[in-house]
C-alpha cells in the first residue's frame, strides 16, 4: 500500500484524476450477485459480515491465506465505498457484488450524481479522507459512472490464484 503522507502533489493529482472521469461499469455476463440496500452507517457491520460470507462461498475450501487476504481487501474496499455513499451521497444507496470466475466486481450507487468522488489531498495524516486512495491501491480497476438520477462507483478486485 502507498503511504499517502509522502506523495508529491503530482502523485496526489494523478490519484484524484483516476476518479474524475465517467467510466462505464463492467458488466459481468452471468455471475452470482449479492445485492444490499444500504440504510445507515450503523448497519455496515452486518453488511460486512454478509459480504465476507458471500465472497468466501465463491472460493475453494482449501484456498488458504492468500484467499483470506483477498477477501479482507475486498471487504475493506466495500466498506470504504459503502460508507462514502452513506456519508456523501443521497438515498437510496445500494451495494452490488458480482462473483466472476477471476474477479469480484463491486458497484455502489447513490442518488447524488452531482457529487463526484473526491480523494483527499494534503490532509494531515490521521484526519481521514484517504479511502478513495486506498480503493485505488487495492483494486485492479475502479471508476465512477454518472446517470441522470444516480452515481455508480465501482471497483474490480482480482480473486486469489489468478
UniProtKB/TrEMBL annotation:
Annotated GO MF terms: protein serine/threonine kinase activity
Pfam families, per database record: HATPase_c_2 (PF13581)
Histidine kinase/HSP90-like ATPase domain residues: 43-154
Sequence segments annotated as region (Disordered): 1-27
Key words, A-Z: Kinase, Serine/threonine-protein kinase, Transferase
Alphabetized InterPro entries for the sequence: Anti-sigma-factor_SerPK, HATPase_C_sf, HATPase_dom
PANTHER family documented for this protein: ANTI-SIGMA-F FACTOR RSBW (PTHR35526:SF3), ANTI-SIGMA-F FACTOR RSBW-RELATED (PTHR35526)
Name of the protein this chain belongs to: Histidine kinase-like ATPase domain-containing protein
Amino acid at each position: 500500500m502507498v503511504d499517502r503522507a509522502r506523495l508529491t502533489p503530482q502523485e496526489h493529482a494523478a490519484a484524484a484524476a483516476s476518479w474524475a472521469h465517467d467510466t462505464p461499469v463492467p458488466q459481468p455476463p452471468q455471475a452470482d450477485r449479492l445485492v444490499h440496500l444500504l440504510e445507515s452507517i450503523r448497519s455496515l457491520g452486518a453488511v460486512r459480515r454478509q459480504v465476507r460470507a458471500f465472497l468466501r462461498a465463491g472460493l475453494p475450501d482449501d484456498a488458504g491465506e492468500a484467499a483470506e487476504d483477498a477477501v479482507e481487501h475486498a471487504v475493506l474496499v466495500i466498506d470504504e465505498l459503502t460508507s462514502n455513499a452513506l456519508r456523501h451521497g443521497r438515498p437510496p444507496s445500494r451495494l452490488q457484488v458480482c462473483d466472476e470466475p477471476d474477479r469480484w466486481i463491486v458497484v455502489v450507487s447513490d442518488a447524488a450524481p452531482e457529487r463526484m468522488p473526491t480523494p483527499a489531498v494534503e490532509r494531515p495524516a490521521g484526519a481521514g479522507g484517504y479511502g478513495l486512495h486506498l480503493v485505488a491501491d487495492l483494486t485492479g480497476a475502479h471508476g465512477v459512472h454518472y446517470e441522470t438520477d444516480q452515481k455508480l462507483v465501482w471497483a474490480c478486485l482480482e480473486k486469489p490464484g489468478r
